[in-house]
Amino acid sequence: MANWSKNKTLPANINNGNEYAIGDNVALEDLNAITNNSFYAMEKADEAKTLTNNFSNPNLLINGDFRINQRGKASYTGNNIYTVDRWLTYGGSSASIVPNSSGTINIQILQALSNGLILVQMLEQDFSKYVGQTFTFSTKTKLTGTGTYNVSIRQYDSNRDEISSVRKDITITQNAISSGSSTIDTNCVEVRVLFRTVSAVLNDVYTIEWAKLEVGGVATPFSPRPYAEELALCQRYYQRFNTGDNYSEYALGFLASKTSAQFQFPLTQTLRTTPTLVVSGNDNFTVRFGNQSDGTLLQIATTGMAIRNVKQNNVFITASWTTELNVNYSVATLRSKVSTSYIAFDAEIY
Fold this sequence. Notes:
single chain; mainly beta; Jelly Rolls; Immunoglobulin-like; seven-stranded antiparallel beta sheet; five-stranded antiparallel beta sheet; elongated
């Protein structure tokens, strides 16, 4: 059997698909080995290409595909208000943000406003460790209309003043993926991603499928997080409780005085800071309790709600009313008075 090496050449009668001759100097086993090694190399090259194409950096934006909408509205219009989770409106009533069931959002232009802000996400990061590194933003959008829109990556210092020298504006390409990069400045403590109007046209509908900000100079594919993980990230900034029914219990507590009761709300996630209490209306709730003297159940409508304190993963709130109750201290429940009532804890960045 021939001792084949990679430096030998194939005999002429093996070329061009000729049959193998028993007397040749190259064994059939050697040819099979060469063929198998070639296919193996090709397979490995294909695997490497697949890994490269499917590789995706983590998304620094939260709710980048707009699926989480804890506030639950069908549309949002106004200035400096949160819409779908983590996305804040700017620009007054120039546009309406409409969440879609598919997880995308529509921006419906209500005013032909140029050089205006529409939607922004502010990032909570320690950017000192990223100084000198490149961040890349990418987004997939669709435009029904004739206006011009862009995305701006902006950096801010400790006074929340913009570092204008490193601003990056990215022109949105209609019905395609648009991307651009920016290098983190030495003085950067905050990064914002802003969807803007360059030349808005009345009644344009600007659909955003997803948005991504990542470390690195190349835009890698968008890969959505599992829903439960995305929700947990959003709930670091905002948590909302609602029963969806009349006279259903929110929380258990006790009468603290003749005109107030205290209630405990266990949080699903630790909030990033002490929250602001947001309620549907101070008169949307009732307090129900038992009179310890005779065991009768009593109920009174609230006129005020406030956070008493926050301890670890619990928020304690005080519900109050005006008419003094002549009863002993008792266990109490906080209940909904209307089906649209809600209690929320807001720790968003403004």
